[in-house]
Write a structure and sequence with these properties.
Number of strands: 8
Bound molecules: zinc ion
CATH architecture of the largest domain: 3-Layer(aba) Sandwich
Number of domains: 2
Helix content: 40-55%
Radius of gyration: 24 Å
CATH superfamily of the largest domain: Alkaline Phosphatase, subunit A
Oligomer: single chain
Structural class: alpha/beta
CATH class of the largest domain: Alpha Beta
Length: 335
């Protein structure tokens, strides 16, 4: 409505001035031509400026890389030690420590929302290990799955290189693998995350992807085995921090770091040795975004939900989000 009204008012005014100049007997022909030329340029600029689609479809960068850390709680992050890369991303980027998971606070459900821009009731994944939606998805794309960030990119930028690598095979059921240039399940790399990390480094350097997710499941495993917020949990987070440092270095080695927005986030937190419940410890996770055009050291007061993650990615990459998504880009992150 705003756009239509502004367009109408702007062009009504220009048209009135146009008629006035044309009928003014005090102006000679040359002056009239000059005035009318200027008005034509103004009218053209009005059309350009008032097209929100053109503005929205302008990509901020050529690359987005997201590190997905399963089970990384925002709660008690202050207690974490040896995470210089994460702290550096927070100091040089924008973030919230109150992004809220959808219910139930478990993996497949919340990774579905992370890629599908929608809550449980819409995408239909309801269990920690759902392979197909238990509730029929309200909308399906031509691969018979709720639209994901990957399928939306494929539709709008068919040539774009997209990737997803993961060490929990549950991820493959919520990303629309048919729409992805390269996806890879890396078994058993919980034990040695270097394996997962090396594959991610090589992929970044070789393919310079438009959008890439590197998923790590080891922190969630540690939480289930030793408990959340235990020394073991924080030690594993410190190991993941080193992985983050290596992936940032891979972007620099690939020569694309300055044209990349780097994201780290999670699906849910945890409490004691589990999650899936309704405590804040289980529901709140970090969402940290850093790179060109992102405010530095900014903690947003805005409400952010799990399904706002892909909406923010789509906005950054100049991709129009589908009507089926209810997520919103976190606009306050942008300069
Ligand atoms: Zn999880």
């Amino acid at each position: 409505m705003w756009c239509k009204d502004t367009f109408f008012i702007c062009h009504s005014n220009i048209f009135a001035v146009f008629l006035w100049v044309l009928n003014d007997k005090n102006l000679d022909t040359m002056k009239k031509i000059l005035f009318l030329s200027c008005l034509s340029v103004l009218a053209w600029m009005g059309i350009s400026c008032n097209s929100p689609q053109q503005q929205k479809l302008q990509p901020m960068v050529k690359h987005v890389v997201m590190v997905g850390i399963d089970g990384w709680a925002a709660h008690d992050l202050a207690q974490a030690h040896d995470i210089p890369n994460i702290r550096n991303l927070m100091a040089n980027g924008s973030y919230t420590l109150h992004k809220r998971s959808v219910l139930p606070s478990a993996s497949a459900i919340n990774w579905a929302s992370t890629f599908m821009g929608a809550p449980t009731e819409l995408h239909g994944y309801t269990k920690w290990n759902s392979k197909v939606p238990e509730i029929p998805a309200l909308v399906q794309n031509n691969h018979n799955i709720f639209p994901t960030i990957y399928s939306v990119i494929r539709e709008q930028k068919p040539e774009a290189e997209t990737g997803c690598t993961f060490d929990w095979d549950g991820v493959k059921f919520v990303i629309d693998t048919l729409a992805i240039s390269h996806w890879e399940y890396i078994p058993d790399s919980y034990v040695d995350i270097n394996k997962n990390c090396t594959i991610a480094e090589n992929y970044i350097k070789e393919k310079k992807p438009f959008f890439y997710t590197a998923y790590f499941g080891t922190l969630d495993e540690t939480g289930h085995e030793h408990g959340w917020y235990t020394p073991e949990y924080y030690n594993t987070l410190a190991e993941i921090d080193q992985v983050i440092g290596r992936l940032i270095q891979a972007l620099k080695d690939a020569g694309i770091y300055d044209d990349t927005i780097f994201i780290i986030t999670s699906d849910h937190g945890g409490i004691d040795k589990g999650h899936g419940g309704m405590t804040i410890e289980e529901l709140e996770t970090p969402f940290i975004v850093c790179g060109k055009g992102i405010k530095k050291g900014f903690e947003t007061p805005d409400v952010v939900m799990q399904y706002d993650v892909p909406a923010t990615i789509a906005y950054i990459l100049g991709i129009q989000q589908p009507q089926a998504w209810v997520g919103r880009p976190v606009m306050s992150f942008f300069e």
